[in-house]
Amino acid sequence: MDSTSFLERYRQLGTIDQQKNQLIEELLQRVTELENSFQQEKLDHERETRFNRDIQLHEMELMQQIHQIKSIMDREPFVVLLLDGEGIIFKDEYLQQGEEGGCNAAKQLYTSLNKYLTTNLPNIKVPKLLTKIYLNVRTFSELCTRAGLVSDPSTIHDFIRGFNETMSFSEIVDIGSGQNKALDKMKETLQIFLYNCHCHQIFLGCPSNSEYTNFLEDILKEGDLTGRISLVEGVTFEKELETVKTSYRIAKFPEVFRTSKLTPIWAPAWKNTLPTRSMLTPSPSRQFSNPPPLSRTSTNTSVSGAGAPLATITPNDDTASPDFQQVVRSRTVASTSPPKAVERNKYGQRVDRLDFKSIPRDELNRLKKLKLCNYHFLLGECPNEENCYHDHDRKLTRQELHILSAIARMTPCRFGLECDDPECIYGHRCPQSEPGKKTCFRGDSCRFDPVAHGIDTNIVKVTKV
Q: What is the spatial distance between Cα 96 and Cα 93, in angstroms, rounded to a whole number?
């Protein structure tokens, strides 16, 4: 083999070495790139691991917070009962029992509502009941008297007192006079509780009229909130609510509320003209099928000449309601007795001689609690004798009769200062106000009208009847 062959072979080996070195360099470069990528992936993985761990810790904290918030939201659950007292009226037996009836009505309402929630809304566990009933107490008391439901408007005040004292969160609110005051208060109260997480259900009770229909239609615009509201039906809903009642849950409590309207059994003729003698009591003819006789012998005793027997006469006025009777004194006795008189001041305003400051406060409160029938003891006859819930059997002393007459004077007479009935037992001026002062310590909550305050008690005129 010559040298040329060896030289050729040498050159071939040199080329192979170069290719080997190039391959090694490329492999080393690739390894370097992979090492860098690996380090980057490692850093990313560590970062994601830390991030996931932080997220998990944060999620655990959030879940704990949600659990705490849910526990707070579920704490002290309550339902709200908002009623317009004009449309939702308690049953007769509760109203007639005065303070005791108010206590029983509050307890029965709580029991019935809990029973309803257990059956229809089982997710609400042992809630508190917040009840607000908005009512013009004076107008409602007069309506109950005119309907023959009670003989004394003070019975309704006693009922309200008993209702408010029984349950911590239940109350009947006297809204005073004014149109749509109950609706306005219900609207404002609803807004407070509608978005309250502790309030699990709102019960609305209202009469059937266009104002409440518009109110309920406005609520329907918030579609996700209608499930939080139920309508309470006492008297069957009339056509005004037909369009909206199908969108609400309807709740009925017939064991608590009346299912029929409260209708007067005598016409308020005094709105048009004042008769010469006031109607002492509504006729019981429609309420009781066999009314007790309205006359007694002259052995009945009373105060201030109110012991004469009673007789029922029907007014001759053709405009008078056929369902109404006047209860007046028997004229046979009047013929042998001196004429009765109504004492008035120089303004012609009636003045009742009764010094309330001289009456012991303890005795006054004691007799109030006895629930005595004013008609029976002061007039000698109760027109609701067989169905009256007040006491007729107690024997009263002369002093107790005097105090009872003062208690009766605390109830405003519907004829006010113009009353001409000398035997009227009700009040014609506020007993708490002083002459010249146009208010008393009760302020706006006084049952007497503003004009019945500050009356001049100097008697200058006597009207004989």
A: 5
Can you say whether the dihedral through the CA atoms of 400, 406, 407, 413 is positive or negative?
A: positive
Question: Any idea what DSSP says for residue 224?
Answer: G
Give the pLDDT confidence of 79-117 residue by residue, as tens digits: 999 999 888 999 999 999 999 999 999 999 999 998 998
Instruction: Work out the mean pLDDT of the chain and round it to a whole number.
Output: 78
- The widest CA-to-CA distance across the chain, in whole angstroms, is 181
Handedness of CA 361, 364, 368, 369 (dihedral sign): positive
pTM of the predicted protein model: 0.51
Angle of helix 398-409 relative to helix 361-369, nearest 10 degrees, comes to 80
- Judged on CB neighbours under 10 Å (0-12, 13-18, 19+), 126 is exposed
d(CA 387, CA 384): 5
Do residues 135 and 174 touch, judged by C-beta distance below 8 A? yes
357-382 b/e (C-beta count within 10 Å ≥ 16 → b): eebeeeeeeebbeebbbbbbbbbbbb
